[in-house]
Design a protein that fits this description.
Methylamine Dehydrogenase, Chain H, five-stranded mixed beta sheet
């Protein structure tokens, strides 16, 4: 029998490990690994493969903290809740007041009264704890394609497909039309994030630069903080930093923004060990560390350098190195999704306690009471004048490209 070198045996072992499927339900892995600076980290990974008794899909569009420690996860096949076990809400085709409007959930957010807002490609549902109300009136929403939802104090801000922003404030809807006087200079907002240090709303667009929204005496002000032709103007996604400011990013670089110092470059795709690797998402921790989802696992950036890499050998799954999304929940769990799995990671250095992550969801009593949202026909409307493209709900082609974007990276034919 031929003898094998150590390197050959290693690759044989690696090949065998790659053939072992992830068990249905959950798989728990505990690993001790060294950082780039040789400090020891103890971490635990919990993997969930989509099944009928787990999360229905690994294609995650949004994730938020629930009111009682649970996690709500918007997927392409329903709205899932995890509180130690899984439950999923689906479309009710017979009664839209008793179930989801669509299984393809784009965004979720709680308002200040504890009502759950659910965004789709064809409107919004609001769940008050008992019933769902539906907003699909294009007198209120000029575009029914919901891209993002963000609670800001007592208001709910809505980013739509090609009609810039809407705001719900004290029973009144206001439309901030694209390119209206002193309004948003963009059609499509990709994402929104709160800057807790300045009580402002930061907005990333894919084509029209980066923006900041402030309010004073019930007046809303829009300020462009980076033009599309500037150095960071094409960083088309934004995520909140728990310490204040926000991270803007695209597939090639990440920059940190605060009002005092402006933009500071954090990382480029070529900075990752073994790279370049595409950047897919980021999540900031309240200890100042930044967790970066890439096509080669998760890199941890802190104190001005990359200190850790979390990948296949830390239990993040053998079928794909690509991490699509990351999110810290209120229990200090780092949720992540790949093409095949969803899971969460808990870990800390051996010499430091676990950090506490601030939750932006409202607090509630053990037996919460819900204040129902007024039905849409009773909601008044304000409109800022401006130019707007013909409103359109998400077409079947849009939905197909939204679904396939979880598997492949390619431009939408409408762009």
């Amino acid at each position: 029998m031929a003898l094998h070198t150590r390197s050959e045996l290693f690759f044989y072992l690696l090949f065998i490990l790659c053939l072992i499927p992830v068990a249905a339900g959950a798989e728990n892995v505990t690993e001790t690994s060294a950082s780039f600076s040789d400090q020891q980290y103890l971490g635990s990974v919990h993997l969930f493969r989509p099944t009928s008794d787990s999360i229905p899909s690994a294609q995650v569009n949004d994730i938020i903290n629930g009111l009682h420690g649970e996690d709500l996860i918007a997927t392409t096949l329903g709205l899932s809740t995890y509180n130690g076990s899984w439950s999923t809400q689906h479309i009710d085709r017979d009664n839209i007041s008793a179930g989801l409007l669509d299984n393809f959930v784009m965004a979720v957010e709680y308002d200040s009264s504890g009502n759950l807002w659910i965004g789709y490609g064809s409107g919004i549902q609001i769940y008050n704890g008992h019933d769902y109300s539906v907003i699909r009136d294009q007198e209120l929403l000029k575009s029914l394609q919901i891209r993002d939802l963000q609670r800001w104090n007592d208001d709910m801000w809505v980013a739509t497909g090609n009609a810039a922003l809407n705001r719900y404030h004290n029973g009144t809807w206001t439309w901030f039309a694209p390119f209206s006087p002193n309004g948003p200079g963009f059609y499509e907002a990709d994402s929104m994030a709160l800057d807790s240090a300045t009580d402002s709303l930061l907005i990333a667009t894919g084509h029209d630069g980066l923006w900041k929204v402030t309010t004073s005496n019930d007046t809303v002000y829009f300020e462009k903080i980076e033009d599309k032709n500037d150095l960071y103007g094409m960083l088309g996604h934004v995520r909140r930093d728990p310490l204040g400011g926000a991270y803007f990013f695209n597939s090639t670089q990440i920059a940190y923004y605060d009002s005092a110092t402006g933009f500071t470059q954090i990382l480029k795709m070529s900075d990752f060990y073994g790279g370049p690797y595409a950047i897919n998402d980021v999540a900031g921790g309240s200890d100042g560390a930044l967790y970066v989802a890439t096509d080669n696992g998760i890199y941890v950036w802190e104190n001005g350098q990359i200190t850790r890499h979390l990948g296949m050998f830390e239990g993040f799954g053998s079928s794909s190195h690509r991490i699509r999304t990351v999110f810290f929940d209120a229990g200090n769990r780092l949720w992540f999704s790949t093409l095949d799995n969803i899971g969460y990671y808990t870990g800390a250095t051996s010499t430091e306690p676990l950090i506490t992550i601030e939750t932006m969801t409202p607090t509630s009593s053990p037996t919460p009471t819900f204040s129902p949202i007024p039905v849409p026909v009773n909601i008044s409307q304000e409109t800022t004048p401006g130019e707007i493209l013909p409103p359109a709900a998400a077409s079947p082609l849009d939905r197909i490209f939204a679904f396939l974007s979880g598997f492949f990276t390619f431009p939408h034919p409408s762009r």
